[in-house]
Specification:
Blueprint: H1 17-24, H2 56-66, E1 70-75, H3 81-95, E2 101-106, H4 121-125, H5 130-140, H6 145-151, E3 155-159, E4 171-175, H7 183-190, E5 197-203, H8 213-226, E6 232-237, H9 246-257
Parallel strand pairs: 1-5, 1-6, 2-3, 2-4, 4-5
């Protein structure tokens, strides 16, 4: 993903809890926040970029997150759903004592034929962490940023196969590729959320690897439930929000115009 397409702005900073409360009373939804100093140091050698949202829906993500909403981000590939989620979550972890870490959860949907992969369960799961390594590389301008954050306990990766029986506390949870989760998996993740957590779901209905229609219906039912919860903000991304590259945008627009799903 050509993440460099996001602009940087040294005057743009994320909101503290106090600023969030003020933002709720601010009639200007997308007003820029004042610079915020960090309350705890980042791991040595790591400096998180400041990211500015480009499209209106990206700005809405920032606003709703700053308003203490849990997020459900759905829509086209290349719109920055996971990238922005990582930036916002890592900003909070770096700047506040409230959240201790970012927990990334996704389904190892290929586990149906994962047995051929060599090594332990942890080693087999590494392939699913590659997108997040790339995001952290872009956000910190360092190829080893993800491994450093993991070693410091500021990022944790879990597959849905291992979420049952745990309680998530004092963390920001990013649930990625939810189009590959069954209703049972989504329920298992949602019911793991404990005290002092924020959760962000990211997905694209058009990119599901699930083969059974009953499994695919799980996400549709989950969205209906989330829409009834006042604690959540649902943001739908369209082809107008695609920032990965012009080629990707043109390709997706062509598919949509021809009503083709590949």
């Amino acid at each position: 993903m050509a993440l460099h397409s996001y602009a940087e702005d040294e005057d743009q900073a994320f909101l503290s809890r106090r600023q969030r409360k003020a933002a709720r009373k601010n009639p200007n939804r997308h007003q820029q926040s004042q610079p915020l100093t960090q309350s705890k140091p980042e791991p040595k050698g790591l400096h998180l970029k400041n990211i500015v949202p480009i499209t209106e829906n990206q700005k809405e993500v920032f606003y709703q997150y700053a308003s203490d909403k849990h997020l459900l981000l759905l829509g086209s590939a290349g719109t920055g759903k996971t990238f922005l989620s990582f930036f916002l979550a890592l900003s909070d972890v770096a700047r506040e004592e409230e959240y201790e870490r970012v927990v990334v959860i996704r389904s190892a949907v290929q586990s149906r034929d994962q047995g051929f992969l060599p090594g332990s369960v942890a080693e087999k799961s590494k392939v699913y962490e590659l997108p997040y390594q790339a995001i952290c590389t872009e956000l910190y301008n360092r190829g080893d940023a993800y491994s450093i954050l993991k070693s410091k306990g500021q990022i944790e990766f879990i597959t849905t196969s291992f979420v049952r029986g745990i309680t998530l506390k004092n963390c920001i949870v990013i649930v990625d590729e939810i189009q590959n989760m069954s209703g049972a998996e989504l329920n298992a993740v949602m019911t793991r959320v404990g005290e002092n957590c924020k959760i962000i779901f990211c997905g694209d209905f058009k990119q599901s690897d699930l083969t059974k229609e009953q499994e695919r219906m799980g996400l549709k039912s989950f969205v209906k439930v989330i829409d009834k919860l006042d604690q959540f903000a649902t943001i739908g991304f369209t082809r107008n929000d695609i920032v990965r590259s012009k080629l990707v945008k043109d390709f997706i627009i062509a598919c949509e115009d021809l009503n083709i799903i590949l």
